[in-house]
Amino acid sequence: MKVVKGEASYETIISISHNPDSPHSQEDQDMQMQKWNEAYNLLEDLAYLDRRITDAMEQSDKLAGNATLSPSLKRKLSAFTAELTEIRKKLLVTKVGDIRGEQQLREKVSELYGAIGDYYGRPTQSQIERLADLSVEADNMKATVDAIFTKNLASLNQQIGKASLAPIKILTREEFDAEGQE
């Protein structure tokens, strides 16, 4: 590690290791870190999924407001946005204002992430099982969103192209990850 203060710089090597005074075994601490990272990665995946949905919804809404598009295409774009909106409501809390008590997939994963991270020993069996269940739920939701995109985008983009407008573009994971690096 290097620290620079004014003209002076200081360098040292830092070793990160488990606390040898911990009452938890190395195996338990490793399991905690593994599951904590899995929950973190799941939150990242959900953030990417939400971004894909919201970007597509915003593009669709903007296009639906274009006066040059046919009423039929505008209805199709509105239906596409509505379908994505319903999925998004299952992904995360979308209400504005008092949301106490409401939990959707993202909030459930966030709560589990915090619970695993707050205890330095092995996660409970129920936490491990809950994380697996939430991962399956996230995979199912991603598959649903992918199916909506597959079912609608080719046709919509073809019709949008006929109107000489830019198609709806879905953000790639690489683009999403690069934004986080900026």
Order of helices and strands: EEHHHHH
* Average pLDDT: 92
The backbone outline, from C-alpha atoms, is elongated
Count of DSSP strands: 2
Largest sheet: 2 strands, antiparallel
Q: Level of helix content?
A: 55-70%
**What is the spatial order of strands in the main beta sheet?**
1-2
Radius of gyration: 22 Å
- The number of helical segments is 5
Head-to-tail CA distance between termini: 22 Å
Q: Can I get a quick summary?
A:
This protein is mostly helical. The protein has helices at 26-64, 71-91, 105-118, 125-162, 173-181; strands at 2-5, 8-11.
Q: What this model shows, in words?
A:
The protein is mainly α. The protein has one domain (24-181). The protein is built from 5 helices and 2 strands, in the order E-E-H-H-H-H-H. It has helices spanning 26-64, 71-91, 105-118, 125-162, 173-181; strands spanning 2-5, 8-11. It has a two-stranded antiparallel ribbon. Strand 1 (2-5) and strand 2 (8-11) form a beta hairpin. Helix 1 runs antiparallel to helix 2, helix 1 (26-64) runs parallel beside helix 4 (125-162) and helix 3 packs antiparallel against helix 4. It is elongated.
